[in-house]
Write a structure and sequence with these properties.
The protein has 243 residues and is mostly beta strands. The chain has helices spanning 2-26, 94-103; strands spanning 32-44, 59-73, 78-92, 110-113, 115-131, 134-149, 152-158, 161-167, 170-186, 191-215, 218-242. Helix content is 14%, strand content 66%. The longest helix is centred in the N-terminal third of the chain and has 25 residues, at 2-26. The protein is elongated, with a radius of gyration of 25 Å.
């Protein structure tokens, strides 16, 4: 009986301590934050329009995302924030195979590609709501993106002659817009767990891609142009420093 009473008293003391800590944390007013988080990046529909005169058969697949962001609340509800996000998404090249099989049936065709490397530097206003130890943010952002188009290669046979088409890797910058939302849960006076979702849309143009066609021993180089309307959704989780 004595052990049971001791256990009950211990649980009550722990519960009261937790309730007291929760009460204290819910009444600390933090105006700024710095987030460090990571997660996954998913290609979604872009707000930008493509270019029918510069099509491309190379797409982005699901990948990883890393983000650093910071913000400061200027009034009770509104503040300004900035973020830097880097996304790595493998290239999907199956359309290269599908298209050449339509025009050159038979034979074995294979394709390969690197990864899309997309970096976004964005800033804009955000609105925040707080209840207890929870904080909710929504934001609209704009800025600049650096998009690295991966190298690709298509290999196969053309009338029993080896054929390959290689396209170079290149990088270009473009204007970007986006938006997002975050949920933070305070765990100490100055730290919180952070969960966020961010959408970024941009239109990357690559005007001087080098495409190398090799048929047997013959090799020909050409310059091609591609335009990619890119939309990425990043789902991240991490830690926030509150101040």
């Amino acid at each position: 009986m004595k052990k049971v009473c001791t256990l009950i008293v211990g649980l009550l003391a722990t519960s009261m301590s937790f309730a007291q800590q929760k009460f204290i944390l819910s009444h600390i007013d933090h105006r700024g934050f710095v987030n460090l988080s990571g997660g996954m990046s998913m290609p979604v529909k872009s707000l930008m329009k493509g270019d029918a005169t510069a099509p491309s058969d190379v797409v982005a697949l699901r990948g990883t995302s890393m983000q650093v962001s910071a913000g400061y609340r200027l009034t009770r509800r509104f503040g300004v924030m900035g973020s830097f996000t880097n996304c790595l998404n493998d290239a999907g090249t199956q359309k290269l195979v599908d298209n050449i099989q339509k025009s050159h049936s038979g034979g074995n065709w294979a394709s390969s590609g690197g990864a899309w490397n997309c970096s976004h530097l964005l800033a804009g206003p955000y609105m925040t709501f707080a209840t207890g130890i929870w904080m909710f943010d929504t934001r609209l952002t704009g800025g600049y993106s650096w998009i690295q188009r991966p190298s690709t290669e298509l290999k196969g046979q053309f009338y029993d002659v080896p054929l390959s088409i290689k396209t170079s890797q290149t990088r270009n910058g473009s204007f970007a817009v986006g938006g997002g939302a975050s949920i933070r849960c305070k765990i100490t006076r100055n730290f919180a767990l952070n969960f966020s979702a961010d959408y970024v849309s941009t239109r990357a143009s690559f005007d001087n891609l080098t495409s190398t066609l090799t048929i047997g021993q013959d090799k020909v180089e050409d310059k091609i142009r591609e335009v990619h309307a890119i939309g990425l959704l990043s789902l991240n989780g991490g830690l926030s420093l509150l101040f």
